[in-house]
Amino acid sequence: MLDNNTPTYGNRNKFEIFKKSDMLKGDVANDSHINTTVHIGTHIDMPYHFYENGQTIDAYNADFWIFKKPLILEILQGEFIIKQKLIEKLQLVDDEGFDILIVKTGLCNKRESKDYWESNYGFHPDIYNIISGKFKNIRVLGFDSISVSSFQERMLGREAHKSFLNPNNPILLLEDMDLNNITEKTKFKEIIIAPMRIRNCDGLPCTVFGKLDD
Fold this sequence. Notes:
By secondary structure, the chain is an alpha/beta fold. The protein is built from 4 helices and 12 strands, in the order E-E-E-E-E-E-H-E-H-E-H-E-H-E-E-E. The longest helix is centred in the last third of the chain and has 11 residues, at 154-164.
C-alpha cells in the first residue's frame, strides 16, 4: 500500500495525500487528493520512460498482462550490479515458453531500511541480451529491488533502462515487488499484473496477482 513512508528511488519523491473536502471540518463528504510520482511501490516502467517514441499503456491489450508461464529464480547477490550469477542461472534453464521472469534477491527483506533505496541492486544491461536471446516469449522482468538501476551505479542503470525498454523489442520492468513469501519452488499457474490505466504515462503503479498451482 502507498503512504508517505513508501520508499522511492534515492528517496527523492514522497507520496502525499490530502483532503480537499473533510467531514471533520464540516464538509458533506471526504474527498482525498494525492501527489506522487508514478514510479512508486510495485510499478511497471514503460518504454516511454526512456524513449520519447516509446510505448505507453495504450499499446498493450488487456491479455498482455496475463502470464501463464512464469519463471522464478533466486540469487544470492553481493555486488550492486546483478550480472554473472543471474546469467549462470539462466544458462541452466531450458526455455519452456516462459513469458515472465521474476528474480528474487532477498532485498525485499530490507524494504523498511534506507539500504533499500540507497544501496539497491541493479541489473547489468547485458542481462537483457541474454533474456531476449534465449527466452523469446518473456515480456516482463520483475524483481524485489526498487529499480533496475542501482543508486550506486546510476550511469549503468540508465543503460539498463534503455536496453530493457527499447521500443523495438521491450521487456517491461516490474520494480519494487514484495517477494518475501515467494521462492523458486513456488508454483504459479498464472500471474496477472493490474496496472493503473493512465494514458500517455511513463510508469504505472500496479497490483500483481499470483494464482497458485493446485
